[in-house]
Automatic annotation (TrEMBL):
The chain crosses the membrane at residues 33-54. It comes from the Bacteria. This is Family 10 glycosylhydrolase. It comes from Proteiniclasticum aestuarii. Coiled coil: none annotated. Keywords: Membrane, Signal, Transmembrane, Transmembrane helix.
Length: 606
């Protein structure tokens, strides 16, 4: 009915008022009432069988809630009708396969936690609301910052609790925040990418002496305990990537999470060596200021240079050694965990790199020759990383770094490799740069994603940052808010259908097992997980329910994905109720954590 439709639309829009003002409805959960009714029914039947009730009246069956997975611990002894398998040919160009994510930063309490000192219940409620918004946009991966600055949003033996959670250096985390976030994310059928800032020690500038800054850090801070491994630039501190012990500490910190938690990926941002800054010269003029101008790491170079004579090449080798060892460590321990990096949008300029870089002006920042010193192109060529998300935070036509030029350049870099390419989009600029003619329009980010779809190797997108997907928040006002609303509506229209994260070919192959005992009876689809082994790569992670028009059984059409159901260890048999079997044909398949799909099962019918 129209009134009901409008009401549903209004409720859906309320989700965008994240996170304080609206109590966002939670997804339906298994009803305890249903379980009680089932137990009551069984009891009544037993009593009737014993002759206690002899009036011959029928006991009404409980009404099942539509779309709820219900456990059935008393499987029927009736034979399951024969099923058939739907023939399918994968189409990588289909809209069915697309990585969709948003960065969820914790630094400076940008997105989560929204403020320091929140209670356990507040943190849990806030994170669930965040996942509601991810679902509203049909996103399928959360990139959550878990180590913003040599600290931890998780229980760690190597890094102190993050002040962005505790609000006080003397306090511990209120609970295992990371464990909760991973579990809740997986309950929604999404991937969880643990985002690490590898070398940063302090976020904000300070004119105090380095020793004073270190003394004010948590007593368990590695930097505080190892001041010789700390460098200073632009009044901020960071661990020295040229120091082997500092690199080892960062790798151990990341591997602590890989070993302990069921994450899907390790995600690194672009902070290795520092970006350039500016300062006042002797004449009071503002001039560029580059790391190395004051020989910040000259002593480290002398102690660790080996055969290197070019300090810039040595710095690039330091970040290369770090990535290579980290990649080997992750994949040796858990071959199914991905390593991804999010580099600055410009690797290098063609004019400075013998044509290897992008056709961008020398005045624009880059990360190969003068700052950061990360040869991401080499990492891709050697397939040390499983995916890259370059931050192309410019729009079409911007001379400093035209979006189309950079998207094509990165598309070319992954050609012939098994490294997945996603693009990082600056949805924050839709709000913050309304006076910039290049950032005026109602579908800016949608247009960028549509352009990505025209290139053969771009397999998804991520938004910086999550908060700008919630324009109903009171923090947004004026023209910027209006622009966000329109652009976000365009994104949601583009992402109207669900998508499956593409299988990463850089990871080992793992098969998926089709669901068993698939049956439709009385408009109820039921099935159970077919995998019974212990291989983490091959365990079923989620199921897809397809709803096809009778005349078009095309599993590559994303419009026919009806529902994604994550595996729940407490459920022995899954059910979906009140299906329209007269007009549609239903089918089900299983996916493992590497997003390999099993055979698609067309159920038997009774």
């Amino acid at each position: 009915m129209p009134e009901n439709s409008n009401h549903q639309k209004e409720k859906k829009e309320e989700i965008l008022v994240y996170p304080k003002e609206v109590n966002i409805p939670q997804r339906k959960k298994k009803s305890t009432l249903i379980g009680a009714l089932l137990l009551l029914l069984i009891s009544l039947v037993l009593l009737w069988a014993c002759g206690i009730f002899g009036n011959g009246e029928d006991v009404p069956a409980p009404i099942l809630e539509e779309g709820v997975e219900t456990p059935d611990n008393e499987p029927s002894e009736d034979p399951i009708p024969a099923v058939t398998y739907l023939e399918q040919e994968k189409n990588p160009e289909s809209g069915k396969y697309e990585f969709r994510a948003a960065w969820l930063p914790s630094v400076r309490n940008l997105d989560y936690p929204e403020r320091p000192g929140m209670s356990t219940s507040q943190l849990k409620e806030s994170f669930r609301k965040i996942l509601d918004v991810y679902e509203l946009y049909n996103l399928n991966a959360v990139i959550m910052q878990v180590r913003p600055a040599e600290d931890a949003l998780y229980l760690s033996a190597l890094n102190p609790p993050s002040i962005y959670v505790t609000g006080d250096l003397s306090k511990d985390l209120p609970f295992n925040l990371l464990q909760f976030a991973i579990e809740e994310t997986h309950k929604r059928g999404m991937e969880f990418h643990a985002w690490f800032n590898p070398f940063r020690v302090t976020v904000d500038k300070s004119e105090k002496e380095t020793s004073e800054i270190l003394a004010a850090l948590h007593e368990d801070s590695y930097a505080r305990a190892h001041p010789s491994q700390v460098l200073r630039f632009d009044d901020r501190l960071f661990l020295d990537p040229g120091n082997p012990s500092a690199r080892e500490h960062v790798i151990h910190s990341i591997m602590e999470v890989v070993r302990t938690y069921d994450i899907d990926a390790v995600h690194l941002d672009d902070y290795f060596y520092p970006y350039r800054s500016t300062k006042l010269n002797e004449n009071g003029e503002t001039v560029p200021y580059l790391f190395g101008d004051e020989e910040e790491d000259a002593m480290t170079f002398l102690a660790n240079k080996g055969d290197f004579t070019d300090i810039k090449a040595w710095r690039r080798n330091n970040t290369y050694l770090f990535i290579r060892e980290l990649s080997e460590s992750i994949h040796d321990l858990k071959p199914y965990v991905k390593l991804g990096v999010s580099p600055f949008g410009i690797w290098g300029h063609a004019e400075e790199t013998e044509g290897a870089g992008s056709d961008t002006p020398l005045e624009s920042s880059e990360t190969y020759q003068h700052q950061v010193f990360t040869d991401t192109r080499k990492w891709i060529q050697e397939e040390l990383v499983d995916y890259v998300i370059p931050q192309i935070y410019w729009n079409f036509g911007e001379a400093a770094a035209p979006y189309s030029v950079l998207a094509r350049w990165w598309n070319d870099q992954v050609e012939g490799t098994d490294v997945d390419l996603y693009i990082g989009h600056a949805n924050y600029k839709v709000y913050e740069q309304t006076d910039n003619p290049y950032w005026q329009g109602d579908s800016l980010i949608k247009d960028q994603i549509s352009f990505n779809h025209s290139l053969g190797n771009i397999r998804g997108s991520s938004f910086f940052r999550f908060g700008y997907l919630t324009p109903g928040h009171s923090a947004f006002t004026g023209e910027g808010k209006e622009a966000l609303v329109k652009n976000n509506e365009a994104i949601r229209t583009l992402y109207e259908d669900m998508a499956v994260i593409p299988k990463n070919e850089n990871l080992p192959h793992a098969k998926a097992t089709a669901p068993l005992d698939v049956l439709i009876k009385n408009q109820i689809l039921s099935f159970r997980d077919g995998y019974e082994g212990f291989d983490e790569s091959e365990k079923t992670r989620y199921f897809l329910i397809y709803r096809f028009p009778k005349s078009d059984l095309d599993p590559e059409n994303p419009a026919y994905i009806h529902r994604r159901i994550p595996v729940d260890s407490s459920i022995s048999r899954y059910e979906m109720n009140h299906l329209d079997t007269e007009n549609y044909t239903y089918a089900v398949s299983a996916f493992n954590r590497l997003h390999v799909e099993s055979q698609i099962v067309l159920p038997g019918e009774e």
